[in-house]
């Protein structure tokens, strides 16, 4: 089989990459051709994404792709919930605001005056998180009505990039399903929720399925960059849903753990679960590829390590992630824990100091060493995964004895092993580049090179080196899990 190449642009919360996917001999080979940082910018107390810079990096990726032969198509995935605002002329009014901005910190009380929590969840099936698009829009209307009144369309991040590449204003279904403004059953905008929150129905674009071919790259961009013209495909724009496509399993029932800046733990279903249990556990329903429902829990993930590392750099200690893991392996563990999702860990800043204060308050122990902080984060994440697993099992009525762990987090042998220990499950770790492989796979399916998602997962399984972790020291981990649950109950 001859080479067949597509371009995947993957935006994470801290960096972005351009990857060439080459489908040859029934395997997918990937090659990174461009990498760039994704740094938020704070201006007048508002935290923004630097959209103009990020679009520049897309152009750089297109230029660099010329060296790699003919590109058949491209697809873009990003994080969820954030959006750009277009005026009536199709121009970007301002840079998109970052989900970690403080504008929604105390917004839920005002939201629940308009629509009660249970009704909101029943209508949308989304985990209630103050970062969600619905709450950001509500805050925008409250705090900056002049901007709100100028909105002609809002486009979520992958749709926004696609619009400026092609001129097509659409909302891809997987990213739309992260907004808390989407009906998971009917797969349309939730008009009743939009009305209750006094938002405008006409600002939301028409919804398209994952894997929709939008249009070729605009002529002016093709001419500017001196590239050949190829199609932009609206893949599963939410990076989590692209990653789920790459879970290397042939089973219909499975648990995945997509581990990056955020950790997303869940399962794939034929229809949503929206009931008393799921609202009690605050589990989200999102729409994945092939109209599947992804039933999952959002958990703060490697953000805690990443932000701690940034703090230590400020203090003159430029540790690598490998350094941090070595230090964590050299200290005793299972002494004290944090709730990774506690609101005190949400905003940027001195995470190590907050962890010290948290452990001192909850356990009477103040960790001193860098290795202790790292170990506490990893152990606490592993226990948080166990909590999410138990909640998902309770909602689905199923038991799972293995976890498919994908994404950047699988590079941490410590976190993989601790997850196996805490959850008492076999962990299959890999692929690292799950989001990119899912992005590429959807393009290959859309272009007729792969039959469907099931075949794509089989190809990825055969293309990747999957590492296996068996649970160890189960009794000790179970004993300490009870201590961890006590801090969740407080």
Written overview of the protein:
The protein has 490 residues and is an alpha/beta fold. The chain folds into 2 domains: 5-234, ATPase, nucleotide binding domain (Nucleotidyltransferase, domain 5), CATH 3.30.420; 247-432 and 451-490, Nucleotidyltransferase, domain 5, CATH 3.30.420.40. The chain has helices at residues 51-65, 108-114, 117-124, 133-143, 145-149, 157-166, 173-176, 191-196, 219-225, 239-245, 276-281, 303-314, 321-329, 351-363, 370-396, 413-423, 434-446, 453-463, 474-489, and strands spanning 5-11, 15-24, 27-37, 41-43, 46-48, 71-77, 83-86, 153-156, 171-172, 182-183, 188-189, 207-208, 212-216, 231-234, 255-259, 262-269, 284-287, 293-300, 402-406, 426-429, 467-469. The strands form 6 sheets. It has a 7-stranded mixed sheet, sandwiched between helices. A 6-stranded mixed sheet has the order 3-2-1-6-14-13, sandwiched between helices. Strands 4-5 form a two-stranded antiparallel sheet. Strand 4 (41-43) and strand 5 (46-48) form a beta hairpin. The mean pLDDT is 96.
Question: Topology, please?
Answer:
Blueprint: E1 5-11, E2 15-24, E3 27-37, E4 41-43, E5 46-48, H1 51-65, E6 71-77, E7 83-86, H2 108-114, H3 117-124, H4 133-143, H5 145-149, E8 153-156, H6 157-166, E9 171-172, H7 173-176, E10 182-183, E11 188-189, H8 191-196, E12 207-208, E13 212-216, H9 219-225, E14 231-234, H10 239-245, E15 255-259, E16 262-269, H11 276-281, E17 284-287, E18 293-300, H12 303-314, H13 321-329, H14 351-363, H15 370-396, E19 402-406, H16 413-423, E20 426-429, H17 434-446, H18 453-463, E21 467-469, H19 474-489
Parallel strand pairs: 1-6, 6-14, 9-12, 15-19, 19-20
Antiparallel strand pairs: 1-2, 2-3, 4-5, 7-8, 10-11, 13-14, 15-16, 16-18, 17-18, 20-21
Helix pairs in contact: 10-17, 13-15, 15-16
């Amino acid at each position: 089989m001859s080479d067949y190449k597509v371009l995947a642009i993957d935006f994470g919360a801290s960096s972005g990459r351009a990857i060439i996917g080459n489908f040859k001999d029934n395997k997918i080979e990937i090659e990174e051709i461009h990498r760039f940082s994704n740094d938020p910018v704070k201006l007048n107390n508002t935290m923004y994404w630097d959209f103009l810079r990020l679009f520049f990096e897309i152009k750089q990726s297109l230029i660099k792709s010329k060296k790699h032969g003919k590109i058949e198509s491209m697809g873009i995935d990003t994080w969820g919930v954030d959006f750009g605002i277009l005026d009536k002329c199709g121009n970007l009014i301002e840079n998109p605001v970052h989900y970690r901005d403080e504008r929604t910190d105390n917004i839920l009380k005002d939201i629940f005056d308009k629509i009660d929590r249970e009704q909101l969840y029943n209508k949308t099936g989304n985990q209630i998180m103050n970062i969600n698009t619905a709450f950001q829009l509500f805050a925008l209307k409250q705090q900056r009505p002049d901007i709100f009144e100028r909105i002609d369309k809002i486009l979520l991040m992958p749709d926004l990039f696609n619009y400026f590449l092609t001129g097509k204003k659409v909302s891809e279904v997987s990213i739309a399903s992260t907004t808390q403004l989407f009906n998971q059953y009917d797969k349309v905008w939730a008009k009743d929720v939009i009305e209750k929150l006094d938002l405008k129905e006409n600002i939301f674009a028409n919804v398209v399925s994952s894997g929709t071919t939008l249009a070729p790259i605009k002529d002016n961009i093709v001419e500017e960059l001196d590239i050949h013209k190829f199609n932009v495909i609206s893949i599963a724009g939410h990076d989590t849903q692209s990653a789920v496509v790459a879970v290397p399993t042939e089973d219909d029932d499975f648990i995945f753990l997509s581990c990056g800046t955020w950790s997303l733990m869940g399962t794939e279903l034929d229809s949503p679960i929206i009931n008393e249990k799921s609202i009690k556990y605050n589990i989200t329903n999102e729409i994945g590829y092939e109209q599947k429902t992804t039933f999952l829990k959002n958990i703060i993930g490697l953000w805690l390590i990443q932000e701690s590392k940034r703090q230590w750099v400020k203090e003159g200690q430029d540790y690598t992630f490998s350094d941090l893991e070595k230090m964590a392996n050299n200290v005793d563990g299972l002494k004290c824990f944090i709730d990774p999702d506690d609101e005190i860990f949400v905003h940027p800043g001195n995470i190590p100091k907050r962890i010290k204060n948290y452990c001192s308050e909850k356990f009477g122990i103040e960790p001193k060493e860098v290795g202790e902080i790292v170990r506490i984060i990893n152990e606490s994440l592993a226990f948080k995964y166990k909590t999410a697993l138990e909640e998902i099992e309770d909602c689905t009525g199923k038991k799972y004895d293995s976890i498919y762990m994908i994404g950047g987090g699988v590079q941490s042998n410590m976190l993989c092993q601790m997850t196996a220990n805490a959850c008492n499950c076999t962990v299959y770790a890999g692929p690292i580049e799950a989001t990119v492989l899912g992005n590429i796979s959807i393009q290959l399916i859309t272009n007729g090179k792969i039959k469907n998602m099931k075949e794509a997962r089989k190809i990825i399984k055969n293309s990747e080196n999957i590492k296996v972790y068996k649970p160890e020291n189960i009794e000790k981990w179970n004993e300490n899990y009870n201590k961890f649950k006590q801090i969740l109950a407080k």
